[in-house]
Amino acid sequence: GQHCSASGPRPFLLFANSQDIRRINFDGTDYHTVLERQMGRVLALDYDPVESKIYFAHTGLKWIERANLDGSEREEVISNDMDLPEGLAVDWINRKLYWTD
Fold first, then answer.
1. Is 93 helix (H, G, I), strand (E, B) or coil?
2. Burial profile 42-70: b = 16 or more Cβ within 10 angstroms, e = fewer
3. What tens digit of pLDDT does each residue of 17-50 get?
4. pTM of the model
5. How far apart are CA 21 and CA 45, in angstroms?
6. Separation between Cα atoms, residue 99 and residue 101, nearest integer Å
């Protein structure tokens, strides 16, 4: 029979806990911390595959940041008029950022 295989980079999972943001491949390899600094509470996290950026929302600091997938070039994206950012989605096709607070 025939089969097809996905092309592109290996799939991975990004997740946040109360201290940092981590990454792991689906097969359990390459498990490491992406952002080590005390993050506070991050409930919302998404990835932009076009720019290889991680977007994450701080509930305590009340802003949204982004960084490269290796943790470098960390910067605030949205920092005013936020109450409690709990949801976040990157529309990587139309280049928009959505959040709930």
1. coil
2. bebebbbeeeebbbbbbbebbbbbbbebe
3. 877 899 999 999 999 999 887 667 888 999 999 9
4. 0.85
5. 9
6. 7
